[in-house]
Inverse folding.
């Protein structure tokens, strides 16, 4: 097996007595979708933050593209090629859809300290932005103000901005959250094709999507990974049934 | 052309027409008022880059305004007494040349902005406001206790500084100079807002996470914006000192920071012409209401309250409607 693109090695993070991450070792390999599931409060957000660089683990290391990135911040990890989408859309709401996408393209190109030439007339950036919008199906909304987009369209735009970065790996925090059945199905289809470009670490509550998409699933409960395996293995795992799926059934 | 462009053009027209009328009818006082509007607007254009584009609520821009003013005062006072500023290790003499003074004012105020920004931009929100305020006040009290340049009483410069080819003592010539500089600053500010830097800076104001996630560090953007902002406000300070031929610690006081902020808020935060409209309105009110009552700032306060409560976009925003995202 090839070296994984993204890997956490025994990372732990505590808040007082609460162990939010307890010796978590995960990896993301080329071409796969690795889903991370777990009940509320299991520590998914804390883990995501440590992988993205918002939070430093108390112990353990994060590796990306064979490099120890534990000491790097979000910006540096993004520059290395980690494309992240947020659970709650983090977009520039006053901008048009196109401007948000151009911002991504600009970040990818990295020459932000330019003070005179109009950015919205930069052919190369526009091309890249339009291409990303087209891929998620937002090309007709390029001139719309982001604040006027529907919830689902904002999720699509989040993904489009990540695409403009041409990342080496995606880190997606609940991309399906709040999408209707139709939107969820479309995005599932899209992510299915996207894994060939760059692998996806997917945190998701939508179980249908997770079981349909994921090559591997890891289950996080009380800060610990209690199981990692294929959809079938996870379904059959008695610990998982007790800790997680049982709860879902009961609810 | 958007509605805002027409409003800006209209405002420009009025601001050119008024001095033209004053000049042809020989009303030097009006010319001086217009010059003051242009200079204060310039200070606002500087602040608007930090506040409007970057969302950085600096309550310490008086620091840069004052540094610009004192750069002028120090250079010109040494020149008028023929007493060099320093003789060792290199000889530095005073000067009465505006271009040199402006350069010194911009360089010193941008260095100050770099230092103040590097420290204060590590905080945000109320802390940022307080730290910038503290820096401004620090310089205020420093100049009060600095007897070499007048201390609390300030310092008069007897003759206005010179600009090659112009007689700056003629009000209309100095006015044209101030207008041209304001025009250039507006042009620069408009380009900046539309440039890659402007896009990233305004995005960082709206959502810092978004900017970080595309691999751009908000801190660097904000620091550069703060330095540019400080340099422009510093230039305004040098011009303001030259307009009054007087400098005093008041230039550094928090009242000055507040007034510059009022120009921006009255006119419209983040709007290109916001500071121009704000400064013009401020001077107009000062002139009209100041004649009615010594306490005219009560009315100003009421107006500011109305703008903040009911007309967030300020004068320009209310007239032009919601900002049209530039394409």
């Amino acid at each position: 097996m090839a070296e994984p693109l993204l890997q956490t090695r025994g990372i732990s993070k505590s808040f007082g007595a609460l162990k939010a991450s307890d010796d978590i070792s995960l990896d993301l390999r080329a071409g796969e979708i690795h889903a991370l599931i777990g009940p509320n409060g299991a520590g998914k957000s804390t883990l995501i933050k440590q992988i993205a660089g918002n939070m430093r683990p108390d112990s353990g290391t994060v590796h990306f593209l064979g490099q120890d990135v534990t000491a790097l911040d979000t910006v540096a990890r993004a520059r290395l090629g980690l494309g992240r989408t947020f659970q709650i859309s983090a977009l520039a709401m006053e901008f048009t859809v196109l401007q948000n996408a151009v911002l991504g393209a600009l970040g990818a190109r990295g020459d932000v300290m330019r003070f005179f030439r109009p950015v919205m007339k930069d052919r190369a950036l526009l091309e890249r932005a339009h291409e990303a919008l087209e891929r998620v199906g937002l090309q007709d909304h390029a001139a719309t103000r982001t604040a006027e987009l529907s919830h689902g369209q904002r999720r699509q735009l989040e993904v489009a901005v990540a695409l403009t970065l041409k990342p080496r790996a995606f880190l997606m925090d609940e991309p399906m959250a709040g999408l209707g059945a139709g939107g969820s199905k479309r995005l599932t289809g899209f992510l299915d094709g996207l894994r060939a470009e760059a692998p996806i670490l997917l945190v998701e509550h939508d179980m249908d999507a997770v079981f349909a998409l994921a090559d591997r699933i890891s289950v996080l409960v009380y800060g610990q990974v209690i199981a990692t395996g294929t959809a079938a293995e996870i379904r059959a795992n008695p610990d998982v049934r007790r800790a997680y799926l049982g709860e879902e059934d009961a609810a | 052309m958007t509605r805002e462009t027409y409003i800006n053009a209209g405002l420009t027209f009025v601001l050119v027409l008024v001095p033209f009328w004053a000049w042809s009818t020989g009303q030097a006082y009006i010319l001086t008022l217009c010059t003051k509007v242009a200079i204060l607007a310039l200070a606002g254009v500087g602040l608007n880059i930090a506040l409007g584009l970057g969302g950085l609520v600096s309550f310490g821009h008086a620091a840069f305004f004052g540094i610009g003013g004192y750069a002028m005062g120090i250079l010109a006072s040494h020149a008028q007494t023929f007493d060099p500023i320093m003789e060792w290790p290199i000889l530095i003499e005073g000067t009465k040349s505006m271009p040199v003074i402006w350069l010194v004012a911009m360089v010193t105020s941008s260095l100050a902005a770099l230092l103040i920004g590097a420290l204060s931009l590590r905080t945000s929100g109320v802390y940022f406001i307080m730290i910038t305020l503290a820096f401004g006040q620090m310089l205020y009290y420093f100049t009060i206790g600095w007897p070499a340049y007048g201390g609390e009483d300030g310092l008069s410069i007897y003759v206005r500084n010179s600009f090659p080819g112009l007689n700056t003592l003629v009000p209309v010539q100095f006015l044209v100079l101030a207008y041209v500089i304001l025009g250039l600053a507006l042009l620069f500010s408009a380009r900046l807002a539309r440039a890659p830097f402007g896009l990233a800076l305004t995005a960082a104001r709206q959502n810092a996470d978004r900017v970080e996630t595309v691999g751009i560090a908000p801190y660097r953007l904000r620091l550069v914006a703060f330095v540019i902002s400080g340099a422009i406000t510093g230039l305004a300070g040098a011009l303001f000192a030259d307009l009054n031929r007087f400098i005093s610690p008041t230039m550094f006081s928090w009242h000055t920071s507040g007034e510059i902020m009022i120009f921006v808020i009255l006119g419209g935060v983040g709007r290109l012409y916001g500071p121009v409209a704000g400064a013009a309105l401020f001077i107009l009110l000062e002139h009209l209401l100041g004649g009615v009552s010594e306490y005219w700032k009560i009315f100003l306060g009421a107006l500011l309250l109305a703008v903040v409560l009911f007309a967030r976009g300020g004068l320009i925003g209310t007239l032009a409607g919601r900002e049209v995202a530039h394409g």
Q: What stands out?
A: Residues 218-244 of chain B form the longest helix (27 residues).
